[in-house]
Amino acid sequence: MRCFQAFRRIFHDILATMARDRSECVTEWAVYSMSKTTDVSHRSSNLIIGLYSMSVFLYGTGVLVAHAEEPDEAEEQITVPARELFLKMELPFESNASPAYELVMITQFFHQLAAATIVGVLNALIVSLILHVGGQIDIMCRGLVEISSGDDTFDLRTSTIKALICRHQRIIALSADIETLFSYIALMQFLWNTLVICCLGFLIVSSIEDTQGSTMLIKSLFFYVVITLEAFIFCYAGEYLSAKSRMIGDAAYEAKWYNSGPTQSHIVLLLILRSQRKLTITIGKFMDLSLERFTTVRCVFRILFFFVVSYLDCT
């Protein structure tokens, strides 16, 4: 309960910070940047949720196709033949006959659709949060560029210093909250994805030479792609955040801080030094999420998969 309250407080702080960032967008460039970020987040969220929903529809289609291809033995047998469900389970009542079978199928379908939508919303949420942080970094970098005028002078007023430092502090705090919120979620997702991808890969390979392999491919192939995409989303989010965080130091260094006074130069140098610590998302606080990590995880997937296939071939 305390853990849930802590995560709820962190999520509330994230939303409050995002609302404050949007309210402080007064310049034309800031408004354009936030509008662009919002549009990209909206499109990405629709795409992610749509892919997860499509995987459920294709899985259900595979189940129905497999059921349609089964021979009709109702006239030859006294008992009702077993009919495949979306989720294999033992029920305390007879579920093969109509309308119980249809009701169970509809319930399982909407359960799967709701679960897939929740996972899709979770992935869309982290994408939206990371894109928001990236938009704030772009606004800050634009502010550092604009304070360098064309006549080789560096105008750094007290209000400008305060605005830049406050924005940088909010970016760091927001990234830390996102890291705290999604670190252990990413750990559970990667452990679960490792198991699911290995099992799905084995099912896909074993169904190639099967007479009913087409139905298994319909059920599993797109689901395999979506699970792999889920791991890629987390790794790409971490890579994107790290790359964006390095832009702050580069923008501050490229500004003409060396033409300012000693106090102003010292402030900019401290800003550059502080931005050297990259922002990232970790897997359980012990491994950074990046595209390099994604390729490493993919190698682990392949090793585990080929080990399972080789073991089954030997047996």
Automatic annotation (TrEMBL):
Transmembrane segments: 46-66, 109-133, 181-205, 217-237
Membrane protein topology class: Multi-pass membrane protein
Source superkingdom: Eukaryota
GO cellular component: plasma membrane
Presence of keyword Translocase: no
Alphabetical list of InterPro entries matching this protein: 7tm6_olfct_rcpt (IPR004117)
Keywords annotated in UniProt: Cell membrane, Membrane, Olfaction, Receptor, Sensory transduction, Transducer, Transmembrane, Transmembrane helix
GO molecular function: odorant binding; olfactory receptor activity
Principal location: membrane
Cellular localisation: Cell membrane
GO biological process: signal transduction
Pfam families: 7tm_6
PANTHER family: ODORANT RECEPTOR, ODORANT RECEPTOR 19A-RELATED
Record-given protein name: Odorant receptor 4-like
Protein species of origin: Pogonomyrmex barbatus (red harvester ant)
Gene expressing this chain: LOC112552316
